[in-house]
UniProtKB/TrEMBL annotation:
The lineage of its organism: Eukaryota, Viridiplantae, Streptophyta, Embryophyta, Tracheophyta. The keyword Lipid metabolism applies. SUPFAM superfamilies: FabD/lysophospholipase-like. A motif (GXGXXG) lies at residues 27-32. This is PNPLA domain-containing protein. Keywords: Lipid degradation, Lipid metabolism.
Length: 152
């Protein structure tokens, strides 16, 4: 079942008085395994549910750790041929990892699913390297600005 614009307007933010509930996870590369393991254990004990979007299963907390373990050598390749001086110049030249492999794997898994197809309200903070500015994608912003309804 596809969501319509009117069904999107019915989603209310999770507020409790003056408080807003936010789950923020920042593992910093391969350290993302740590919060992924915590989430997996939390949801293992809190519910027994499965989620699907059309015919394609979406990521669940239990999927993150195996994903990292399988793909981390290609997402975060280690160049063992550089010495200390080489590593210094590389760090000044730009990002340590180009992100191409991660982008390709995520695109393969998620396809063309847009933000408005998520089953819950989401906020995805990103950084636009062309404008050197942060960009925030959220299920709330697409109500006012439909061009923010990008692919996940």
């Amino acid at each position: 079942m596809e969501r319509t614009q009117s069904s999107l307007l019915q989603i209310q933010p999770p507020t409790y008085g003056n408080l807003v509930t936010i789950l923020s996870i920042d593992g910093g590369g391969i350290r993302g395994i740590i919060p992924a393991t915590i989430l997996e254990n939390k949801y293992r004990w809190s519910c027994n549910c499965n989620a699907k979007c059309s015919e394609r299963p979406l990521f669940a907390a239990k999927d993150i750790k195996p994903f990292y373990l399988e793909h981390c050598p290609n997402i975060f390749p280690q160049n063992k041929h550089l010495g200390s001086i080489g590593k210094l110049f590389r760090s000044l030249a730009g990002p340590k990892y180009d992100g191409k492999y991660l982008h390709d794997v995520v695109r393969e898994k998620l396809g063309d699913i847009p933000v408005h197809h998520t089953l819950t309200n989401i906020v995805i903070p990103t950084f636009d390297i062309k404008t050197m500015q942060p960009t925030i994608f959220s299920s709330y912003k697409i109500k006012k600005n439909p061009c923010m309804d990008s692919r996940l």
